[in-house]
Amino acid sequence: MQASDNSGLVVRGLTTTFDTARGTAIAAADVDFDVAPGEVVGLVGESGSGKSVTLRSVMRLIREPGKVTGRVEWGGRDLMAMSDEDLRQVRGSEIAMIFQEPMTALNPVLPVGLQIEENLSAHTGLDRRARRARALELMTIVGIPDAERRLNEYPHQFSGGMRQRAMIAIALACSPKLLLADEPTTALDVTIQDQILKLLLDLRDRLAMSVVLVTHDLGVVAATCDRMAVMYAGRIVETGTVVDVFAQPRHPYTRGLLGSVPRGRAVRTMLSSIDGTPPSLTDLPDGCAFHPRCSFATEQCRRERPPLAPVAPGRMAACFHHDRVAASEAIL
């Protein structure tokens, strides 16, 4: 996935492993992707495919027994080579992250307003009064009603949707240029999901901000993202614009995901599904990790791992039989 210039995010060969009692789990393997300024990129896949680990690895938030290798460049600087102090200056100010599960991500014993102010205190020279005013402004921007009163309230006094808005306010406190959003609509009802996604897109436009959006919801991807990267068993298996990937998937896993989306065209019809289960990350099969579940698999797939390679203008796929997949019956 190619970004337009070096002012964006460039990830190359990102690999994250965890030593466990059952062996080494490869949670992310040779992950490559770029994010251009102002672009929204969706990172898609089933639970356990490596999406959240990838974001945490980019932010260098993986702790022992995890190990991370590879290159992560932001604005031409290698985040992996930065000192802890330099990295702290980047986190929160230039790159911010919205964590999954706002119910547990907020500190339950601190008022929400103070949690927003903490980020400002770490990255700006604002005095207490200015930080308070900025926190109030942010809560208003993200659509929290009666913001002045709610500055002094605690997370348990907020609904799920309001907690997520508070998390967004914390992330945006220092006007970052890149936002990493890990399942920002998890556990929210559909109406609130729509509000949160529209808010993120509005803020992207107002702040000229790039976004990496982790989700398993293809409807969210269709509504919000410019490009997408599909992950399976820790690897990116397909990339491209959302329009192109939805119109003609080039990897059988992507095809299976799209095929499982309800169409609403027929009554009492079975939903399509992908046979089998994802492999254990401590015991990945030889060759392509998807071959045990793939109807296109051949002996080559069982022996060799296909590289992520260009298959069409602006498209990449890790499949020896991408032409057969593209030529198969339309699924949408």
Automatic annotation (TrEMBL):
<keyword id="KW-0472">Membrane</keyword>
<dbReference type="InterPro" id="IPR013563">
    <property type="entry name" value="Oligopep_ABC_C"/>
</dbReference>
<feature type="domain" description="ABC transporter">
    <location>
        <begin position="11"/>
        <end position="258"/>
    </location>
</feature>
<dbReference type="InterPro" id="IPR003593">
    <property type="entry name" value="AAA+_ATPase"/>
</dbReference>
<dbReference type="InterPro" id="IPR003439">
    <property type="entry name" value="ABC_transporter-like_ATP-bd"/>
</dbReference>
<dbReference type="Pfam" id="PF00005">
    <property type="entry name" value="ABC_tran"/>
</dbReference>
<dbReference type="GO" id="GO:0016887">
    <property type="term" value="F:ATP hydrolysis activity"/>
</dbReference>
<dbReference type="InterPro" id="IPR050388">
    <property type="entry name" value="ABC_Ni/Peptide_Import"/>
</dbReference>
<keyword id="KW-0813">Transport</keyword>
<dbReference type="GO" id="GO:0005524">
    <property type="term" value="F:ATP binding"/>
</dbReference>
<dbReference type="GO" id="GO:0015833">
    <property type="term" value="P:peptide transport"/>
</dbReference>
<protein>
    <submittedName>
        <fullName>ABC transporter ATP-binding protein</fullName>
    </submittedName>
</protein>
<dbReference type="Pfam" id="PF08352">
    <property type="entry name" value="oligo_HPY"/>
</dbReference>
<keyword id="KW-1003">Cell membrane</keyword>
<keyword id="KW-0997">Cell inner membrane</keyword>
<dbReference type="InterPro" id="IPR027417">
    <property type="entry name" value="P-loop_NTPase"/>
</dbReference>
<dbReference type="InterPro" id="IPR017871">
    <property type="entry name" value="ABC_transporter-like_CS"/>
</dbReference>
<comment type="similarity">
    <text>Belongs to the ABC transporter superfamily.</text>
</comment>
<dbReference type="GO" id="GO:0005886">
    <property type="term" value="C:plasma membrane"/>
</dbReference>
<keyword id="KW-1278">Translocase</keyword>
<keyword id="KW-0067">ATP-binding</keyword>
<dbReference type="GO" id="GO:0055085">
    <property type="term" value="P:transmembrane transport"/>
</dbReference>
<keyword id="KW-0547">Nucleotide-binding</keyword>
